[in-house]
Amino acid sequence: MFKKLKNKWGIKNDFQLFIIIIVFGITGTASVKLGEPLLDILSIGPELFSNLPFGKFIYFLFRVLIIFPLYQVLLIIFGALFFQFKFFWEFEKKMLRKMGIKI
Predict the structure, then answer these.
(1) Using one digit for the tens of pLDDT, what is the confidence trace for 8-30?
(2) pLDDT at 55
(3) In this predicted model, what pLDDT tens digit does every residue of 49-87 receive, in sequence order?
(4) Cα 96 to Cα 90: distance, rounded to the nearest angstrom
(5) N or C: which end of the chain has fewer CB within 10 A?
(6) pTM to 2 decimal places
(7) Residue 25: in which H helix or E strand, if any?
């Protein structure tokens, strides 16, 4: 499985793969942890949608809409901090192209 990832991503060694997996993990955790205070700053909480039908679902969508771009930015930042900027910058461009956003 790891050989397949290394070939797909053009990674040279196991240590680089290990660092990349660590960056993905840290970024995911950080984006979820930072998403909550960001929603608080924007005054968006579950109680805001409590009177609406599917209020919990709507709040969940707002949360995803906040966390997703935060994740993208943090991925680049943490990638740079772990000296993997080039890999994550190319990864981001590829993902955004698949979403129809050209950089």
Answers:
(1) 888 989 999 999 999 999 999 99
(2) 81
(3) 888 888 888 888 888 989 999 999 999 999 999 999 999
(4) 10
(5) N
(6) 0.82
(7) helix 14-41
- In order, the DSSP letters of 55-102 are HHHHHHHHHHHHHHHHHHHHHHHHHHHTT-HHHHHHHHHHHHHHTT--
Is the separation of the CB atoms in 84 and 16 below 8 Å?
yes
CA distance 35 to 20: 22
**Cα–Cα–Cα angle for 80, 72, 100, rounded to 5 degrees:** 125
Burial class (CB in 10 A: 0-12, 13-18, 19+), 1: exposed
d(CA 77, CA 81) in angstroms, rounded, equals 6
First-to-final CA distance of the chain: 31
Tokens of 23: 């960056």
